[in-house]
Amino acid sequence: MPARNQERAHRIRLACGYALAIALIVGLLVYGFDYYTLGSAERRFSPKHTLLRPSGAIGIKLGFLGLAMFLAIFVYPLRKKWPWLSRQGSSKHWLDIHVLLGLTAPFIIALHSSFKFRGFAGMAFWIMVAVSLSGVIGRYLYGQIPRRLNSAEISVRELQEVQGGLAQQLMQQRLLPEEDVRSLLRLPSPERVQQMSIIGALLYMMALDLGRSFRVARLRRRALAISQRFTTLGGFLPTRHAALESAISTARAEAATAKRILFLSRAQQVFHLWHVVHKPFSYSFALLAIIHIVVVMMMGFY
After folding, report:
1. Cα–Cα distances in Å, from 8 out to 14, 93, 290?
2. Which of 7, 202, 208, 259 is the most exposed place for a label (fewest CB within 10 A)?
3. pLDDT tens for each residue of 154-168
4. Of the candidates 98, 90, 109, which has an alpha carbon nearest to the alpha carbon of residue 135?
5. How many angstroms separate the CA atoms of 177 and 293, rounded?
6. Integer Cα distance of 152 and 145 in angstroms
7. How many CB atoms lie within 10 A of CB 112?
8. How far apart are CA 53 and CA 35, in angstroms?
9. Separation of alpha carbons 61 and 59, rounded Å
């Protein structure tokens, strides 16, 4: 199967996975809302108590599902140590599934515990939340570092020449206003980037990516009639103008690539720091989760 088709199939499967996870979580929240909002003393009188309590018919199944996700989450780091597993699929696809499980697991565990976090289970849950949030940041940083070194070997001067040529090309086509094109491609100087702290560089990268969506919307609004601005939700949705969308896509891709190259060294530093923080939290969560499971099994609470 061609690489493009494989990537498309992976995106479809990933979207289905997120849709299924959201449907399950939202469905359980809607069904159990009147139960989860009760106090601890009142829950035992609810007709849903036998189903939704941690040891109930639904609660225990959610616990097993959370355990399965917990085990599957740790397959990704093991993949780097087992050669036979590392040959299965691409690292990016494994990471996407790892992130999906990491984002879904806290919600499943919260539903399993019926939103009551005590003892080792409560500690494990909040550490899991910290791991999930740090995982989102890690996935973002992963996308900022080129997988091949030669994609980052362009010099800053060459980068500025490419940006200048692209801006000139887009403005000559008279599709995009000069001010907005230069705003979309404008980046801080390399000297300023090197002076930023690690956390400051991370926040600046995220701000650039977030702000790019608003600048692209402004590009569309400037080129559209008032009636068309409503159909595109203020420029946040693509238009039917193929030439305009092609120019915007080119400018956006160039701006994203330029940002990655400019912040490459800082992104690598943040990614290294992220590994130092993420792994201990992951192992702490694993230890507390195992203790919780062993205690529950020994006490026969399930």
Report:
1. 10, 11, 37
2. 7
3. 444 555 555 555 555
4. 98
5. 61
6. 9
7. 25
8. 9
9. 5
185 vs 127: CA distance, rounded Å: 39
Calculate the dihedral angle through the C-alpha atoms of 259, 264, 265, 270, rounding to the nearest 10 degrees: 90
Q: What would the DSSP string read from start to end of 56-100?
A: SHHHHHHHHHHHHHHHHHTHHHHHTT-HHHHTSS-HHHHHHHHHH
The residue type at 47: P
Give the closest residue to 29 by CA, choosing from 130, 116, 103, 114.
114
Contacts of 129 (CB under 8 A, 6+ apart): 106
Mean pLDDT by 10 residues, the chain (302 residues): 71 90 94 89 89 89 87 80 75 84 89 81 77 80 65 49 53 54 69 83 85 80 75 79 74 76 79 74 76 73 52
The H-assigned helical ranges of the chain are: 3-36, 40-43, 49-52, 57-73, 75-79, 83-86, 91-112, 119-144, 156-172, 178-185, 190-195, 198-223, 226-231, 242-262, 264-299
List Cα–Cα distances, 82 to 76, 88, 100, 130, 279, in angstroms.
10, 11, 22, 27, 18
Q: Which long-range contacts (CB under 8 A, 24 or more apart) does 230-234 make?
A: none
Q: What is the pTM of this model?
A: 0.68
CA–CA distance, 12 with 18 (Å, rounded to integer): 10
Burial 147-177 (b: 16+ CB within 10 A, else e): eeeeebeeeeeebeebbeebbeebbeeebbe
Q: Are 48 and 59 in contact (CB under 8 A)?
A: no
pLDDT value, residue 153: 47
